[in-house]
Design a protein that fits this description.
heterodimer, A: 540 residues, alpha/beta, nine-stranded mixed β-sheet, 20 helices, globular, B: 291 residues, mainly beta, four-stranded antiparallel β-sheet, 3 helices, disordered N terminus
């Protein structure tokens, strides 16, 4: 082996997802902020990094899911307009703050926010003209970013009873991906990494070549995977499964030793929404005037001190720390890959998977960390080559055939986060809706006019109810009442439409109202739920 | 279909969306879902019509005389139409409508049937579930290796011979990774973002000192409390507020140590004009032969 040849591969995978939250019936809606915050803190900063790296000639590889709900929100006219309002208000406040904080310890951090929101405006308006999916597509077309899809609404597949539901989640996702990115998806992020053995045939039917699993999904597979998680395996269908590397996951995440806890990094729980004079900050709060986080924070973690004793944030010091952590991460991957290559007698692939929103939203400097990591990986070492899963499969098409085990990346490794005393009541209603939707799709193979619109809206309501997010939020107890309301609302909307269709008494006014509220997948074709389509896909 | 930026101010959801979810769908049905290697969740609905048919066929008092159970069949290796060889029963109240089912053997296929065990031992099945394949939860014993090459467009799926890959210790990679994963996961589950404090699902572990001996026994017991009332009622159990599911049902699971547990359950109607109270006392006394 030549000295300058790599000893193994690193694949960085970011899972970007939010549930579909869009409320045209309200002028101002609290939970829509989740999307705007993630835009400002994660999605646009990631594009900013890709722009910078490309401009300076640094090659990089990253794999990123942009789930169909997120694609739908990014492309939606109403949310685009509301996002403009969101960042414009932030920028207005940041500009005022630069004046207010002059000659105080907070001046540097105030200037940082002003720069940040100006850059967001510049990228969003001047670079992408409000269409940030085009930004991601640009880097995919350059071969640096691989965008993968996800179930249509992040549906939790192992708890579905009907294969029609699994097929519909995958098929709708693949079609939506084609619409936004101009080609079919090569990979998929199964929501919550939840895998049910055999469901991979529906991936294959859409031309999807690979998906990801939590560590034990691979190592508890049968027969025993010879290289553990350090090489993908093929399911009997020929679809590849890549397993998560726990070492690199833990290095970033762990509360004791993970990077985000460093005392120089930004403190999440001190926010201007609470810290500023009420009358001064009120125009930047929601219409109800209640103090909440507004995403601008002036303090660093500082150490084990009370929230009122936190010191001012120093942007340069924090950025230097992110560079140092990126160096540490790279060093550890080099040693890990040297060790594995020796141990396995084969070039290993280390797959590091994270929620994208960890970077920037939860760990503010996480996006700086990624920027430094890409630069260092490219310029400072030769041991590890960054690849996308597609590239790896092109280089190494021979892999072991293993039936992976049912698994998820949730607490305890299986389905309990999405099936426990807080949310198990949902499933009898969800399953009934799917059963009825399949019945409708089979009964009306070629509907048109109002009936067709009603059937398409039924399909939208079913898939919205299938989001794993509702069950998850009930378990963790945050936004529990919102998630319960959403699930109940989609159930009623579906059941109402179903009864109107079966009773041949459609109320067009109500249908129109639902189309206006729940407008996900404008291209919806309800026949995706038919048994015939599912069977065709399963045999392909 | 486009949002067109129009804002309907003050237009809240239609009336229908504040309604509780349907209590049932008018069909006798049951479903079984996998939770983890040792637990499944079953829900069922039994209509009045089905009950009437059962009493007509088997006698008016069968629901009093029969023990209400979930019969859990081990379906592993059972071919279509074949009869399962192994089963066990879990006592249950038909009104519970759902239950968590614990099985000792992971990695097998299970199916459940809700029904009645009559005094003479005959079983009257009422409703049967789908079959669920539970994950094994450990490193596989199967070590035969098969290899495949897949080209970019799936047009060629080629099975390769395993010969050139055969070597010793192939399983050791998976085993050592499994240990590492278990360790990291234990550290993680406290520190990770989930922050889930879900119900306990401890699998019964063989006690360390008994692993040398051939024969062993462990047993434990938990308590599941459940009930239903009007969906908008205010309910407390032992003085603590209980959150009702949208259909008005509630269930809780408790550890059950030796001794007496007293659980007063109180429900108050939404308009505070009516209330009901049920008091449940449970006594547990565990004895072992000390061997």
């Amino acid at each position: 082996m030549a000295n300058n040849e790599e000893k193994g591969y690193l694949s960085l995978v970011l899972h970007a997802h939010l549930p579909f939250i869009r409320h045209p019936e309200y002028e101002d809606f609290l939970e829509e902020d989740w999307f705007f915050e993630a835009m400002c803190e994660t999605y646009i900063p990631l594009l900013d990094i890709y722009e910078k790296l490309t401009a300076e000639g640094t090659d990089f590889r990253v794999t990123m899911s942009i789930t169909p709900p997120l694609c739908n929100m990014m492309a939606d006219d109403l949310l685009r307009e509301r996002f403009r309002r969101y960042y414009s208000l932030r920028l207005e406040l940041a500009e005022k703050e630069v004046i207010r904080t002059r000659n105080t310890g907070f001046y540097e951090v105030a200037k940082m926010y002003e720069r940040k929101f100006r850059r967001i405006r510049e990228l969003y308006e001047d670079y992408y003209h409000g269409r940030i999916l085009d930004g991601f597509k640009k880097f995919q077309d350059m071969g640096k970013l691989e965008i993968i899809t996800c179930g249509a609404t992040h549906g939790f597949l192992p708890l579905e009873l009907r294969r029609e539901a699994v097929h519909a989640q995958i098929k709708l996702a693949a079609d939506n991906y084609r619409k936004h990115f101009g080609r079919g998806p090569r990979g998929i992020w199964l929501a919550e990494c939840a895998y049910n053995p055999g469901d991979d045939v529906f991936l294959k039917a859409q031309g999807i070549r690979y998906f990801f699993l939590e560590t034990h999904g691979i190592i508890y597979g049968s027969p025993r995977p010879r290289y553990g998680v350090y090489a993908p395996v093929y399911c009997p269908s020929g679809v590849a499964a890549f397993g998560r590397d726990m070492e690199s996951a833990q290095q970033v995440w762990s509360a004791e030793t993970g990077y985000p806890g460093d005392h120089r990094y930004r403190e999440f729980y001190r926010d201007l929404g609470y810290d500023l004079e009420y009358d001064y900050v009120k125009p930047y709060l929601h219409q109800d005037g209640v103090r909440r986080n507004i995403g601008m924070k002036y303090c660093k973690i500082t150490g084990k001190v009370g929230l009122n004793e936190k010191a001012p944030y120093n942007p340069q010091e924090a950025r230097d720390m992110a560079a140092s952590h990126a160096g540490n991460f790279m060093f550890n991957r080099e040693r890990q890959i040297e060790h594995l290559e020796h141990f396995l007698g084969k070039k290993p692939i280390v797959v590091s998977m994270y929620d994208a929103e960890l970077y920037g939203h939860w760990w503010y400097e996480g996006t700086d960390f990624l920027e430094f990591l890409f630069k260092k990986m490219h310029h400072d070492q030769k041991t590890v080559k960054m690849v996308t899963p597609s590239e790896y499969l092109g280089l190494h098409p021979d892999n072991q055939v293993v039936q992976p085990s049912m698994s998820t990346w949730g607490d305890k490794g299986y389905n309990e986060v999405w099936l426990n005393g807080t949310n198990d009541w949902m499933y009898r209603h969800l399953h009934k809706q799917v059963e009825r939707m399949v019945e409708l799709a089979n009964k009306f193979p070629a509907a048109d006019g109002t009936l067709r619109r009603a059937l398409n809206q039924c399909a939208r309501e079913v898939v919205l109810g299938m989001s794993s997010d509702w069950a998850f939020l009930m378990t963790v107890g945050t936004a529990k009442s919102y998630s319960t309301k959403r699930f109940v609302a989609h159930t009623h909307r579906f059941n109402g439409l179903y009864e109107q269709i079966m009773g041949n008494r459609l109320e067009e006014g109500w249908l129109k109202d639902l189309e206006w509220r729940d407008n996900i997948f404008p291209e919806m074709d309800y026949r995706v739920f038919s048994t015939e389509e599912m069977e065709k896909a399963a045999k392909s | 279909m486009t949002s067109s930026g129009q804002i309907k101010k003050g237009n809240t959801s239609p009336e229908a969306e504040h309604k509780a979810l349907p209590e049932g769908y008018g069909a006798t049905e049951a479903a079984l879902l996998p939770r983890d290697p040792n637990w499944m969740f079953i829900y069922w609905e039994i209509t009045e019509n089905s009950r009437t048919n059962l009493t007509r066929a088997h006698g008016a008092d069968i629901f009093q005389k029969g023990r209400q159970v979930i019969r859990v069949y081990d379906m592993s290796g059972v071919t279509d139409g074949g009869a399962p060889s192994k089963y066990f029963d879990i006592p249950v109240m038909l009104e519970a409508k759902s239950w968590y089912v614990n099985v000792q053997e992971a990695g097998r296929a299970y199916c459940c049937e809700v029904g009645l065990v009559m005094p003479d031992g005959t079983f009257i099945g009422i409703v049967k579930t789908n079959t669920v394949n539970l994950p094994g939860g450990r490193v596989s014993d199967v070590t035969d290796e098969k290899w495949m090459a897949v080209t970019a467009d799936f047009d060629k799926l080629l099975q390769l011979s395993g010969v050139e890959y055969i070597g010793k210790g192939s399983g050791e990679v998976a085993k050592s990774l499994a240990q590492r994963w278990e360790m990291l996961r234990a550290v993680f589950s406290r520190a990770s973002s989930w922050g889930v404090s879900s119900m306990s699902s401890q699998n019964l572990q063989k006690p360390e000192h008994q692993q040398q001996k051939k024969f062993w026994l462990v047993a434990d017991c938990e308590l599941i409390l459940y009930g239903a009332t009007e969906p908008d009622a205010f309910v407390t159990v032992s003085g603590r507020k209980v959150t009702l599911n949208p259909d008005g049902t509630f269930s809780m699971r408790f550890a059950l140590p030796d001794g007496v547990v007293d659980m007063p359950i109180k429900a108050m109607s939404a308009d505070e004009t009516d209330s009901r109270e049920i008091d449940i006392k449970v006594t547990r006394a565990t004895t072992t032969d000390g061997k």
